[in-house]
TrEMBL record:
Superkingdom assignment: Eukaryota
Transmembrane segments: 21-45, 57-79
Keyword Transmembrane helix included in the entry's annotation: yes
InterPro entries the record matches: AB_hydrolase_fold
Taxonomic lineage from the root: Eukaryota, Fungi, Dikarya, Basidiomycota, Agaricomycotina
Protein name: Alpha/beta-hydrolase
Keywords: Membrane, Transmembrane, Transmembrane helix
Cross-referenced Gene3D superfamilies: alpha/beta hydrolase (3.40.50.1820)
Source species of the chain: Somion occarium
Length: 516
């Protein structure tokens, strides 16, 4: 068994950071009770069989034994699944041309001198970073200083002076080829040339030549190559989630069936990581109550909902499969026009006189912004309006998402809840640590139609987001001219904008009601 799987509690407790009182409260009242179900079940079953006391139990004792036995068998099944995903990523590198383009764009981001407070007029013409050449910056250039500071995140936030060329090559090898880096000389000539070119551009952007040699203390975060980090979950946990989501799915379908054929611009809500409908039920109910004349589609992702009994639980859709599947469903529902012929040729997409405008209003939360980004890249004409709530797709090349969700040692109760109950769950860990495609997941400002039109595109960020660096995302968006379309709560946390009664929640519903 993978070492990370067996010592998850020790991992959570071994913290160099100062632990807060909320950490201990969450650990004792939530994490420990859930985690301890499995070892207690093993101990109870072993005692009952070895002492032969099973045959003396009353009916409720035997029922308890049956449950414990289920937990034992399920833990063996869970162990086998953890072993299954503990190997290397099942996917090879993406298109080399696409990866090189994405890498160059990530280096160009922040190069243009764009005012962070936005343009004078919403949607004004502004230069974009992709037009900037990657030139050698001075060491003290603020753009180089900023770049070096956020690049440290990919190396566990060690001082920049400790990073050496071998570790940078290892990171480049992972980001381009999704492969470990033995040494530069052992690679084929074409790969050596690509890595040297990438190193040269990175050093220009950093404003300094990276020293030769190696420093194991500055090892990079190689998300899909590093050991996977999974924690125990009892059978009863997954059973509750499966039953709860199934009941809610049927309830919502029956209660709101009358609205599926009315209203312009149907809403597609793409949820984030967590518990699926159990987690988003209140928001979805309030959404449909506030806008009863528009159909709502909620694609359910089993890997993001802890639906372990689903056949695609450990085989999540990639970018192309997800975008094509969702696009096909929208066509089948007749919510969008057929914009391309079978041969791929673009068709006339203008609505005829008397026809209602087509296209959907897409709302995504957190990890759901990846699916949002994939559909925007593949079928931008299908999305009439976009609403991003706590998006993780922007600035994901900077490493904060991976570091905060997977590698950071938690010190507060909220960080512990997020890491144990979400980040260390089997399906989530498999998706993030074995199926993560940074170039596909990254969404650029230029990929969003009508990004500076606040009636067509809206962004919701919380300044105290524990998953992403919301200040940097805000800076990226405002530097490209987004002002009125950005809702920023300096004190907001991840997911808070979806909570009932909050200002962000009210603003989301108000914006959605504005559709024409």
């Amino acid at each position: 068994m993978d070492s990370e799987f067996t010592k998850d509690i020790a991992e959570l407790l071994h913290l160099p950071r100062q632990k807060t009182l909320s950490f201990y409260i969450v650990f004792l009242t939530a994490v420990l009770p859930v985690w301890s179900v499995v070892p207690i079940s093993w101990a109870f079953v072993a005692y009952s069989l070895l002492s032969a006391s099973l045959w003396t139990y009353a009916w409720y004792g035997r029922a308890l034994f049956a449950w414990a036995l289920c937990e034992v068998f399920f833990s063996v099944y869970l162990y086998s699944l953890a072993r299954l995903i503990s190997g290397s990523s099942p996917h090879g590198p993406a298109s080399l041309i696409e990866l090189q383009s994405a890498f160059k764009r990530s280096l160009q981001a922040g190069l243009a001198f764009l005012p962070e407070d936005g343009s004078d007029e919403e949607g004004g013409v502004r230069p974009g970073s992709p037009t900037e050449d990657i030139i050698a910056l001075d060491f003290d250039d603020p753009r180089a200083v900023d770049f070096r500071n956020y690049m440290r995140t990919w190396y566990g936030k060690v001082p920049w002076s400790s990073i050496r060329k071998h570790e940078v090559y290892a990171w480049l090898s992972w980001s381009i080829y999704n492969a470990p880096f033995p040494s530069l000389e052992s690679l084929p000539e074409d790969e050596q040339e690509i890595l040297r070119s990438a190193m040269s551009m990175l050093e220009k952007r950093a404003g300094i030549a990276i020293p030769d040699g190696s420093n194991p203390d500055s090892s990079p975060l190689l998300l899909t190559l590093d050991p996977i980090n999974v924690a125990w979950r009892p059978f009863v946990w997954y059973a509750f989630i499966a039953v709860g989501n199934s009941v809610l799915r049927q309830y919502l379908k029956v209660k709101w069936r009358a609205s599926i054929e009315t209203g312009p611009h149907p809403i597609v809500f793409v949820h984030g990581l967590g518990l699926g409908l159990i987690q988003y039920n209140i928001f979805l109910t309030q959404l449909m109550e506030a806008i009863p004349d528009r159909p709502v589609l909620v694609p359910l992702h089993p890997h993001a909902s802890q639906e372990i009994f689903h056949p695609r639980f450990l085989n999540p859709m990639n970018r192309h499969e997800s975008a094509d599947c969702l696009a096909g469903l929208l066509r089948e529902l007749d919510w969008v026009e057929q914009h391309r012929a079978d041969n791929g040729e673009k068709l006339d997409d203008e609505p005829k006189d008397g026809q209602r405008p087509t296209g959907v209003t897409m709302v995504s939360h957190s990890n759901g912004s990846f699916t949002h980004a994939w559909l925007l890249k593949a079928h931008p004409e299908m999305i009439y309006r976009s609403c991003f709530v706590d998006p993780v797709t922007f600035c994901s090349w900077e490493g904060d998402l991976c570091y905060n969700f997977i590698y950071r040692r938690c010190a507060t109760g909220l960080e512990l809840l997020m890491k144990y109950f979400v980040g260390m769950e089997l399906g989530v860990a498999n998706f993030l640590q074995r199926h993560f495609d940074w170039s596909a997941n990254s969404l650029w400002f230029q990929d969003i139609p009508n990004a500076c039109d606040p009636s067509k595109t809206k962004f919701f960020l919380g300044g105290k987001d524990d998953v992403v660096d919301a200040e940097r995302v805000k800076r990226y968006l405002t530097s490209h001219g987004i002002r009125k379309g950005l809702w920023f709560d300096p004190h907001g946390r991840h997911g808070e904008a979806l909570l009932s009664g909050g200002k962000g929640h009210k603003e989301i519903l108000r914006w959605l009601r504005e559709a024409s």
